[in-house]
Amino acid sequence: xxxxxxxxxxxxxxxxxxxxxxxxxxxxxxxxxxxxxxxxxxxxxxxxxxxxxxxxxxxxxxxxxxxxxxxxxxxxxxxxxxxxxxxxxxxxxxxxxxxxxxxxxxxxxxxxxxxxxxxxxxxxxxxxxxxxxxxxxxxxxxxxxxxxxxxxxxxxxxxxxxxxxxxxxxxxxxxxxxxxxxxxxxxxxxxxxxxxxxxxxxxxxxxxxxxxxxxxxxxxxxxxxxxxxxxxxxxxxxxxxxxxxxxxxxxxxxxxxxxxxxxxxxxxxxxxxxxxxxxxxxxxxxxxxxxxxxxxxxxxxxxxxxxxxxxxxxxxxxxxxxxxxxxxxxxxxxxxxxxxxxxxxxxxxxxxxxxxxxxxxxxxxxxxxxxxxxxxxxxxxxxxxxxxxxxxxxxxxxxxxxxxxxxxxxxxxxx
Length: 415
Description:
The chain is built from six helices and 25 strands. With 415 residues, the protein is of the alpha+beta class. It has four domains: 1-28; 31-138, Immunoglobulin-like, CATH 2.60.40; 142-263, Nuclear Transport Factor 2, Chain: A (Roll); 281-408, no CATH class. Strands 11, 12, 13, 14, 17, 18, 19, 20 and 22 form a nine-stranded mixed beta sheet that branches. Strand 1 and strand 2 form a beta hairpin. The chain is rod-shaped, with a radius of gyration of 34 Å. Mean pLDDT is 81; it is low at 8-26 and 280-295.
């Protein structure tokens, strides 16, 4: 009785496998065919279209299509290809293991609708309709296309145009497209006066239709909550996917240029450059003690410097101690005035006891470490300020200068 049940079970197993088009040992009864590569660009599952720039053609200007076919139980007899929507067919070169290839010289203005047919020795074929694949070509240089895309992205970011920016972000963006969109919304909410520019240093064609871009950037941003401005420059990298016909953003590296509000979420790792301190500083660093005396805290930043502009009450992050936008910069060991300005130590005095700035005796720089001293500043604008050093904390690698000040916007020396 047990043997009878065993044979019934085995028969049903074979029957179900046959109905499903499968041999019980994992081989398909039906022929199958799969497109795997176009000029060494992998064709992934579900991919039905591919666009190539002229740089992706081989040195002969040809396209090579590769794939894998099977004839099922009876074996594979041949593989045929149509590149014109089944109007005509040609036979592919096929190995005894089912690997096939076919090459042709494309026209740049012609879309190629490809179908593949695997013919088994028993006369059966695959479902040809399901093999449909569209291949297009662009005569435009991929480098020119990438440059145009970057220009459009930078313009959209500067103008806070979210949709215009996001149309250049690919569906396969490595850090998730929705996270980048959320970060951009935050950027556009908390930042103003965005001015970012770029120069392409190098573009390298990679595998699977990807291109790596090295660029130099210059940017200026203002944080709305504090009036704090960031001016910096540097080098970074981005990767674009060219397989859709237009360059689509695939990934970014630190230092990040877009989605700054969530930089560490978009690109794991430490946020580089002055950006970390720029977003860390907020209004808690500035307090008003009365209508005429303000308190300010200036930290130094690794590889950068902090300055201050009195007439707009704005902290600045500087990259060059010789050329900067602040009225002065704090370098940790020195306070340096901008061109045309000067500083003079008035000694250990309370700022409330001083009502006039001197007419002379100013120098372009003064050593830090003057806690308790009040300094008179002659600003590049010709106006005057007084600052009392409340603390000058020296730590490695950061120093912090805390001071309160008086500023006379009328331009005279009296407070």
